[in-house]
Structures are given as C-alpha cells and as structure tokens.
Amino acid sequence: MTHKRVGVFGWGVVAPKSPNIEAFRRNLECSESWLAPFNGFGPDNFLVGVPEFRFEDYQPWIDSRFAPRHYRNLKEKMDFPTLYALGAFLQALEQNSGLEEELRSLGPQAHVYIGTGLGSLSTIHDASIKLHEAQARWNAFWQDRPAELEQYLEELAAIDGMGIEGEIESAKLNVIREREKRRARLQEKWQAPEPPWNVSANVIWNIHNTPAAQVSILGHITGLAFAPVAACSTFGVALRLAMRAIQCGDAKLVVVGATDPPPHPLTVGAFYNARVLAAGKKVSVPLTRLEGTHVAGGSIIWIVGDLEYYRAKGFRPLGLEPVAVGTTSDAHHIITPTVEGPSAAISQALDEAEAQPGDLATWDLHATATPGDYAELTTLRKMLPAEVIVTARKGTFGHGMGAGGGWELTAQYLGYEEGRLFPTPLERGQLNRSIAALHDCLVFDSPCDFPSGLAGKLSMGIGGINACVISRPLDGE
Question: Are 236 and 364 in a shared domain?
Fold first, then answer.
C-alpha cells in the first residue's frame, strides 16, 4: 500500500450547548459542564447532554439546491440522528471553499462512512407504541367476528392486489390513489379500526445507514456510503477505514462521522440499569467519585482526504494530522474492558505511526466516570511515560455513544490550533486518591499550553471494541 498522508479538511459538530463547530470551540474555553436535567420520566435524578440544534438553520442551503419538498421531506421523515449528521456535514463543507464541488466531481473516489451508536430510537419507540395500541383495538374489534374478519381480509386483498397496467410511472400513481380510495371505503363499510400493519414507513427510512445515505444525497456523493457501527469506538473505526481507503487509492475524500439521538427514556433507563449511569442530580466528573456517566446526543462529521494532493490544490488542513488508528477487540465481555484489548490497540497505533511511547505528549482518555477509569489509567501508565498530559472530557459534554469519541478528538485538534489544551470540569481537589497515585499529570479546570509531540486518544466501545488514534502536528514528517 502506498503511504499517503491524510488531512482533515472539514469538520462540523452538533453537541450539547453547541449547534455548530464555532460554538463548540467557544464552549471548550470554559471548564463548566454542558449537561442539563433530563426529566424524561417526569421528575428524575439524571443529567444528560441534550444537543442544541435547529435544522431550520440549514433550510436556505437545501432550498437553493433542491426542490422545496426536499427540505420538507427531510423534516417529516428523518429522525434526529440523520438531521444532526446533515447539519454537521453542511458545517464541514464551509471549512474549505470548493469542498462541495470536489466531493461532487470525484465520482466513486468520494466516500461516506457515518455510523450511529444508538440509531433512531424515537422513531422506533413511537411506532412501537402506536403498533401496540392499534393491535389492541384490532383484536378487541374482531375477536368475536372470525367470519367477518375473513371477509374483510378478502376484500382488502383484492384492493392490494391491483396491478399496474400501461405506462408504469403514471399508472403507478393512479393505482396508489385508487387503492387509497378503496381502502377508505372499506373502512367506512366495516367501521373497523385501522389494521395494525399500517406502521409508519419512517421505521425503514431511519435505519442505521440512513445518515450516510442522506449525506450522500445532499452532497451528490456517488462513491461508497455505509454505516460503520462500533459503539463508543465508531468514530475511530470510521477514521481508520477512511485512511485506508485514501492510502490504497480507493478514495481521495471521505466524509466520516458518528451521530446519536438526543437522550431518550429508553437509553437513560437502560444505561442506569446497566449500572454505568450517574443518578445523583450533579455532574459526575471522570477520575473523581466514579459513580457513572451521562448520556448525550449529537453528531460529529469530518471530511478527510489525501493531504499532499489537497494542499497542492489550495485546501487548508485543519488541526492535527491523523497518522494511525489502532483497532482491536477484547473478545471478553459486553461491557467490562480488558487490559489486553486497549493495550493492543495502543501498540498497533504506535507501530503504524512508527512512533515510540516517549513521543507522546498528550493523551485523551475514554474515561466514563466509572471504576473503569482506574483500569484505563493503569493500562496507560504501563505503556506511556509519566510526563504525558492527560485529558478526560465526558464531564463536559457527556457520553455520546457514537459521537463522543469524535467530539473528544475534535477538542484535541481544536486545542492544537489554539496552542493549548482546553480545561475540563475536573478540580485538583476532586481527583480520586487511587487515580492520583497512578497519574496526576492531568488537565484540570484551567487550560495549559499544548505540549510538543504526538497526541493520542483512546475509545473503548460496548462489546469490547477499541480504537486508538495517534496524531501529530501538521508540519511533522
């Protein structure tokens, strides 16, 4: 495989308190948490990260390129993960003039890899409730009328069996309209409730590959588009795949990202019952009391490409240069990480970056404010020197299942551009004593200068999926 350097040429964010990348950058300047009360069960004890987002902000861009119904269809049919991803993608296009045209012109050499950690929960939840209620009405109406039900179904089958004859496109619309009229008359005749199988088609319009597909449509990107899904490691895995595609010549630009729904009672309750969610009405800061994490939603999109090729074309790379991504699986437990899996991911990333542990100057933890923080730092201290400056940011914006790792990596890259590591909510006096004994070279609630050297970031996903990203200053060779 030819070695090609990869650069980041566009990025966009939807996150708590941060409707765009500019707000995200500004908010990182302070050490305050971006979390807010949930109250999704009525009064409750949870804090969550609710994205700040208005899809209406992107309507002028969409209306200028598509028929008016396109924006309306997106609003009516797409759940939040897709809308968040579209917003972040349009932000990313603004970072370099000409990106939109370049993605369009590349044909099969422009790809889209956007995963989702949790999928479109709201659509599935709402459709499931409606199905349950419709099934109950249906059963109650027909339970003592088996013969009548058989007749009803025969009449309905005749309607649904109407075929298309003649010119296909015009005949198709005519058949659809005629079926609807006849179904309405049938319902009136029997005074029956709607059949339970009249489930919203939005269920299939919002499957896991939908964000990637909709980005490909919005950007007229005709190369490979799919959804890599690796829980909390989704962004790192997508980045690795993108770098490989660029380095082997399959792609010149790849849109990579991850997107999550806003906090929902299903996930908040499930994380709580999995004993990893904080429920004390106050921010659970990593490396402190280890009482649990906070669910968050939003999106992160990068546009990455052949660094030297696009520099020569006048495009400006952003942040740091991603050099390598190590990916491994623990093959051990659905939620409890091993020492071996993350260690192997770090070693793989260092080997592929042709770097030594001593080359690392700063490191961002996965750190979920659970007892796993201690194990993660134990692994880190076995592999990296004591001088590495460590950050942990889930106390800032919460735990986005797929997007969180991308937010953390973007914060690292933005910090490099600003020449400093942004503060975290961690106060020195809060640091857990056992963790302090392992490593106390941390970024607390004040910023510090960005150190000279390589930057690392580890994500550890549910299922034991690990992704370690090694990055360097753009002028490094």
Answer: yes
- What is the CATH classification number for the domain harbouring 307? 3.40.47.10
pLDDT, residue 477, reads 42
**Residues 76 and 211 grouped into a single domain:** yes
d(CA 389, CA 455): 9
Q: What phi and psi values does residue 304 have, to the nearest 5 degrees?
A: -115, 150
Token couple for 83:
């809308």
pLDDT, tens digit, 9 for 90 and up, residues 425-436:
999 999 999 999
pLDDT at residue 3, rounded to an integer = 78
pLDDT of residue 1: 47
Kindly give, in sequence order, each residue whose CB lies less than 8 Å from that of residue 138, ignoring residues fewer than 6 positions away: 193, 195, 196
Residue 433's identity, in one-letter code, is R
Q: Say yes or no: 319 and 241 in one domain.
A: yes
Q: Are residues 115 and 132 in the same domain?
A: no
Instruction: Please indicate, yes or no, whether residues 179 and 312 belong to a single structural domain of this protein.
Output: no
Q: How far apart are CA 222 and CA 104, in angstroms?
A: 8
Contacts of 416 by beta carbon, 8 Å cutoff, 6+ apart:
319, 320, 450, 455, 473
Within 10 Å of residue 320's Cβ, how many Cβ atoms? 25
CA distance 75 to 366: 34
Tens of pLDDT, residue by residue over 160-181, are: 998 877 676 777 788 889 999 9
- What domain count does the chain have? 2
pLDDT in tens, 320-361: 999 999 999 999 999 889 999 999 999 999 999 999 999 999
Residue 151 lies in domain: 124-190
Residue 38 sits in the same domain as residue 170:
no
pTM beyond cutoff 0.85: yes
Q: What tokens appear for 127 in the block?
A: 């459709």
Residue 416 corresponds to which tokens in the numbers above?
A: 């490099």
